[in-house]
Design a protein that fits this description.
Largest sheet: 5 strands, mixed
Helix content: 40-55%
Structural class: alpha/beta
Strand content: 15-25%
Order of helices and strands: HHHEEEEHHHEEEHEHEHH
Radius of gyration: 47 Å
């Protein structure tokens, strides 16, 4: 009863109630201040975290950008090196002779003079070859050639006297400088009639390079598909200093020498009873670039021979040029140049018979005449075009 009266009195005590309300307001203000401070701390922490994350991302971007720039510089250097290498190997001057060299050079290098009599030269001349071995080859007269033409006596060597010439040759892929000594002979009876032993056979008269050297260059170029500039580099590894123009001269002289053989092969081919022929486009290179016009590589195949010829036409004139006097059976594709070349004049009988291959016949009439199942199998195999 007493506690209830005291509680009732306090509830009616205005000072007590004011104090309690003030205490509640103070506590509420304190809690709000603590909450605001906590919120500020959280905001600062979040801002610091975001700044740190942004700084890390910026550092990663800077590092990536620096790596990209470094790789770009390396790529530019590598591309420049690759461009130089490609230009050195396949540049415009790799297979083309300079006009200055062509005007200044002769078909072959002149025979070298003895070292004791050789004078310094300017311009074109034999290139010194100090690093390749030298072998002396003595060329002597045969017993039959030693007969004196004046008195009938026997020619005798004139001591060690000889005419000296140098010939660069290849022996088992070993480049040597052959020094040929052409012995001289004279009749001891009349002391006239001096005769000199013949020298080696050369593809270029008066040249410095042996026949097997020219054959080796042509072999590497046309069978090994090795350009002349690359051959120059290979020869330098073997100690031989040479130029592409010199190699071109050797190949040109060899081709000129073999022209009768080449024509004889064509004559034999044209005399065959059965021939196969075909042609394919051949791009023309001019100063390292492909020109618009085309040549065509024609081929004629017999039982014994295969011959090629480059012509600037695919017409009947080209077919007539490679077939010549051929009068047998010609197995070819559907090119109309071959039947046109068979008739020399309108209304005249064809000089040879054209037999087209079955593959080309299927393209024309196979889709019409073949049974359906077999036609479907050929269409799936791509032997005949699919309708539509």
């Amino acid at each position: 009863m007493l506690q209830s009266l005291m509680k009732f009195e306090r509830e009616n005590d205005l000072d007590f109630l004011r104090g309690a309300a003030q205490a509640l307001q103070d506590e509420n203000a304190r809690l709000r201040a603590e909450a605001a401070a906590r919120q500020a701390e959280l905001a600062l922490a979040q801002a610091a975290k975001e700044r740190a994350q942004a700084a890390q991302e910026q550092a990663e971007r800077d590092e990536a950008r620096a790596e990209v720039e470094r790789l770009s510089r390396e790529l530019a250097v590598l591309q420049e090196q690759l461009a130089r290498r490609i230009k050195a190997l396949y540049g415009r001057k790799s297979e083309r002779r300079k006009l200055v060299d062509a005007a200044a050079s002769s078909p072959g290098e002149a025979e070298a003079e003895p070292a004791s009599e050789r004078k310094p030269r300017r311009g074109h001349g034999p290139t010194p070859q100090p690093t390749i071995p030298v072998e002396e080859v003595i060329n002597e007269l045969t017993e039959e050639a030693r007969s004196c033409e004046h008195c009938g006596g026997t020619l005798e060597p004139r001591g060690a006297e000889a005419e000296i010439s140098e010939l660069i040759a290849i022996e088992e892929r070993r480049i040597v400088l052959e020094r040929h000594l052409r012995a001289k002979y004279q009749c001891p009876g009349c002391h006239t009639g001096v005769k000199t032993a013949p020298g080696p056979v050369k593809v270029v008269p008066g040249g410095r390079y042996a026949l097997n050297f020219a054959v080796e260059v042509a072999y590497m170029k046309y069978l090994g598909h090795l350009p002349l500039e690359r051959q120059v580099q290979l020869f330098r590894h073997d100690g031989l200093q040479i130029t592409t123009s010199t190699l071109f001269d050797q190949v040109d002289a060899l081709a000129t020498t073999l022209t009768p053989t080449y024509q004889a092969i064509w004559n034999e081919i044209q005399a065959e009873p059965v021939l196969r022929a075909d042609e394919t486009p051949w791009n023309v290179l001019f100063n390292g670039h492909t020109r618009n016009e085309r040549y065509y590589a024609w081929v004629a195949v017999s039982e014994r021979h295969v011959a090629y010829r480059l012509l600037d036409t695919r017409s009947k004139d080209g077919a007539a040029a490679i077939l010549g006097a051929f009068a047998g059976i010609l197995l070819v594709d559907g090119l109309t140049s071959y039947p046109a070349a068979a008739r020399t004049e309108p209304g005249a009988a064809p000089r040879f018979r054209v037999a087209n291959c079955m593959a080309h016949a299927l393209r024309k009439v196979g889709a019409i005449l073949l049974p359906e199942e077999f036609k479907r199998q050929l269409e799936e195999a791509g032997a005949i075009p699919t309708p539509g």
